[in-house]
Write a structure and sequence with these properties.
253 residues; 8-stranded antiparallel barrel; single chain; mainly beta
Length: 253
């Protein structure tokens, strides 16, 4: 696919972000999932200790922070410096709604989660204490790994490949209903000219001596560090998300 088409796809289709499957370290093959807030209590009677588990709502916008988002200017600078991106690939904003589950999985919907653009994102999350990555004092850094199936943004059912963002948030137990974070979406075109996924020879993935239809381009491999345009990263978004709470008790008028 020519870059001009890739630009059109992502400028139109937005990228389905948010869901927090915090991987202990994307750059390491060893992944430990810490299910924050996991409890043995019956549903509706979980532990009341502050955690990132829950459904969140927010709006992500591209780094570097523009007018109106000056409060995130220093944050963007710390995360990605001058924050280069492939021109035209980042929508001006992405409303999103990630859900962090207590079992370590994550589900994410955003403004592009429609039949034409892309599917709901699904993945898992874990604490990310990697000292080589930006950490914020007093906050726990979480990183998510999730994937959505990407269409061309024009024709329903026209599949092109997968998107896999680096999704990072910082949780503060003293401010448990708000989190700051950033997203670096990576796109992998895996469909060939014939309209089918280019796959590896049978039995070459997972030690299975059978046809396993795994893409030639390894979409589950650890993401490269930072945001490298030549390795599929489209750019960096900054955001603040807020917890969606039950409407109980109902407020009095």
């Amino acid at each position: 696919m020519k870059r001009s088409l890739l630009v059109t796809v992502f400028a139109t289709a937005v990228f389905g972000l948010a869901s927090m499957e915090l991987l202990s370290n994307m750059s390491s093959p060893t992944i430990t999932a810490h299910a924050q807030g996991k409890s043995d209590f019956a549903p509706g009677h979980q532990s009341s200790d502050p955690s990132a588990v829950g459904t969140w709502f927010g709006i992500a916008r591209p780094c570097p922070a523009a007018a109106g988002d000056e409060g995130h200017a220093a944050f963007c600078q710390q995360i990605c410096g001058t924050c280069t991106s492939i021109p035209g690939t980042l929508p001006p904003e992405v409303p999103m709604m990630p859900t962090i589950h207590a079992d370590g999985t994550v589900t994410v919907n955003d403004a592009g989660s429609t039949i034409v653009f892309h599917t709901t994102a699904q993945g898992s999350w874990a604490a990310d204490p990697d000292k080589t990555q930006p950490q914020l004092a007093g906050k726990t850094r979480y990183q998510a790994s999730f994937i959505w199936l990407q269409g061309d943004g024009q024709t329903p059912g026209h599949f092109l490949g997968v998107a896999r963002p680096r999704f990072v948030t910082y949780f503060d137990p003293k401010n448990p209903d708000n989190m700051i974070g950033y997203i670096q979406p990576h796109f992998f075109r895996i469909v060939g000219a014939g309209g089918l996924v280019n796959t590896l020879p049978s039995g070459s993935k997972g030690s299975l001596d059978v046809t396993n239809h795994y893409p030639e381009l390894d979409v589950l491999a650890p993401l490269p560090s930072g945001c490298q345009n030549l390795k599929g990263c489209l750019g960096t978004y900054h955001f603040t998300i807020h917890r969606v709470k039950p409407n109980v008790p109902n407020p009095s008028n």
